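Quick illustration for those who missed Monday's session on complexes.
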Amino acid sequence: MPEQEQRQGLNLRFWRRDLAVDLGTANTLIYIPRQGVVLQEPSVVAVRNGTLVAAGKKAHRMLGRTPAGIRAIKPLQGGVIADYELTRKMIEYFIGRVLKRFPFLRLRIIITVPYGTTQVERRAVLSAGKRSGIKETYLIEEPIAAAIGSGLPVAEPRGIFVVNFGGGVTEIAVISLGGIVLARSLRQGGETVDETIQRYLLRRYRMEIGLSVAEEAKRKAGYAADPPQKLSYIFRGINLRRRLPDTLEIQAEELSEAIAPVLSTIAGAVQGIFEKIPPQLAADVMQDGLLLVGGGALLPNIDLYLSRKINLPVRRVEDPFTCVVRGASMALQYLERLELQHN
Ligand SMILES: Nc1ncnc2c1ncn2[C@@H]1O[C@H](COP(=O)(O)OP(=O)(O)OP(=O)(O)O)[C@@H](O)[C@H]1O
Ligand SMILES: [Mg+2]
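Prediction with adenosine-5'-triphosphate bound:
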């Protein structure tokens, strides 16, 4: 390479910064090449008179606990952006925190979008990037990023079966040659499991609990299959019969039955996609099994549950939370092979 070109390449590298953002219903993650995951925060903002006063963990703690004048809001719902202005402010806030004063004009960013995102929604994300003054914004579908992040050769002609069990959505996708061959996005995820627990306690015991209590119960005792005999969870909430704060002990087995309907919907959708896979790709999938990513992959025994239901080996990735953002960051390195939408 001539010396001048080499110098230009180097300059370009110093001049530009790459950043990957996994914008999820539950969590937002930022990844910087060679640094790794630099931010992992709940996708929540706190707003006073239209001005953002907190974001991430601090705002998450305020959910359901805000005084008059402050609102804690989740700008993404069911995997899609419910409030564009707040989402943009939240991303700007997070990027500003990890990059300090680095100018947005010198950024190239890649943002993950769920498979089910419409063209209108995609264009809105791209124009939000532009409005923030970011030089180039690329979009990547979450299942593809997940497969790349877990080290699979997505660009090859070989079928890859991925389930991304997120907070607000579950995406089921078959990938080959760098693209999605077949997919389905269900607006149900880990948060639906929490809501199901919340509703169950209300209906069965007239006990009202907060969503974060339901989420904790799920993580500690929400077995998808084979709940341990002696495990239980003690709920704290309001007993509506007596109108007083109260506790209630529930066995893991009962919790497992309570969440079964959500899991069965998800398993049914996975089965539905599996039945539609073209034969050549089905052969690959039967050999390699199903790849499970997303925070929901941490639900105890979910891999066992799915493998029994669909009769396929299920592999839960090592880092279900971060593999999507890492994959997105890796995708920036071979853009020419992926044909990603960008501005
Ligand atoms: N140990 C655990 N057991 C069960 N579920 C868990 C565990 N840890 C986290 N989760 C769930 O994972 C979900 C969040 O996953 P993730 O961060 O992948 O979602 P997201 O990317 O923000 O959402 P989406 O992709 O749907 O927009 C939450 O519903 C959370 O309750
Ligand atoms: Mg996600």
